[in-house]
Amino acid sequence: MKNFGEIFKKFRESRGLKLKDVAKAGISTSQLSRFEKGETDLTISKFMLSLDEINMPIEEFMYAVHDFHRDELNELLSKVRHFVSTRDVEGMKKLLYSQMETEDKREKFHQINIILLKIRLQDLSGESYYSNDDLSYLTDYLFSVEYWGYYELLIFMNTLDVLKHDVFMVLAREMSRRSDFYKEIPKNRRLISTMLLNGYITCVEREKFMDALYFEKQLNQCFFIEIEVYERLVFQYAQYLYRYKKEKDCKAIIEMRKCIAAMELVGSNHLAQTYEGHLKKVLEENS
Questions:
Q1: Does residue 192 contact residue 175 with C-beta atoms inside 8 Å?
Q2: Which of 35, 76, 187, 227 is 20 to 30 A from 25 (CA-CA)?
Q3: What is the model's pTM?
Q4: Taking the mean position of all CA atoms in its chain, how far away is CA 140?
Q5: Mind listing the pLDDT tens digit for each residue in 189-212?
Q6: Which residues contact 128 (CB under 8 A, 6 or more apart)?
């Protein structure tokens, strides 16, 4: 458990707690002291109990372990979002090639991350990067995981638009069951909401209106609270997109523009540009 003890000590001391205060978790002060000095490890159960004693969530602790950086996939996706929003094809290519040249002991996850990059680069550049074998590898992995956590939700959310529609719908329905244990975790809940929004828009774009209603029903059950402004705006945008595509209601275009204007109003300019581009593409396809 590299650096865990040293980091644990810093947080314990910052809270004004002594070794004997934490040892109430069923660990001796001497054992805890050796852990903090890096001389011994704790079992996972004792470590989690010790974190409870200093009132620190495991997510915060792991963030510190990673030198206050996000996990690898989130760092990767942050770069992807930047390159997509700036239309930087060369930047995306360099990111893909650097990942392909990097060796990673977690071969399966490394390969999936590379597939994700290929998908987003192909969408950005219009050139061919991923293959049917890549998509099969990706979907085989998602089907193989019984309980979807944060990683699986992130991967699916960022690749669902290129999956065959029947596969995409099966996975979307399975997602609800396979991530059920984690819905009460706030960041997972937001990921599930974003995935549902992406799925809703994807179905409307493909004019799979019955399938779109499945996502709309799921989203209505989310009961977005008032501070979840992003989700509310995108949901409204998607509902008006549905009206425009299915009912040919031109008034829906005005409402979609209002949603985009609201994004601009709160300073979400990249988000507004993304949906402005999306709306422009939709209008061109229907002209």
A1: yes
A2: 187
A3: 0.74
A4: 19
A5: 788 888 899 999 999 999 999 999
A6: 122
Q: What is the pLDDT of residues 82-117, one digit of tens each?
A: 888 788 999 999 999 998 988 776 788 889 999 999
Burial class from Cβ neighbours inside 10 Å (0-12, 13-18, 19+) for residue 233 reads buried
Determine the residue type at 239: Q
pLDDT > 70? residue 25: no
Give the C-alpha separation, 67 to 56, whole Å: 16
Which residue is it, tokens 């805890």?
Answer: 32
What would the two tokens of residue 116 be? 């994700």
Instruction: Write the secondary structure of the chain as one string of H (helix), E (strand) and C (coil).
Output: CCCHHHHHHHHHHHCCCCHHHHHHHCCCHHHHHHHHCCCCCCCHHHHHHHHHHCCCCHHHHHHHHCCCCCCHHHHHHHHHHHHHHCCCHHHHHHHHHHHHHCCCCCHHHHHHHHHHHHHHHHHHHCCCCCCHHHHHHHHHHHHHCCCCCHHHHHHHHCCHHHCCHHHHHHHHHHHHHHCHHHCCCHHHHHHHHHHHHHHHHHHHHCCCHHHHHHHHHHHHCCCCCCCCHHHHHHHHHHHHHHHHHHHCCCHHHHHHHHHHHHHHHCCCHHHHHHHHHHHHHHHHHCC
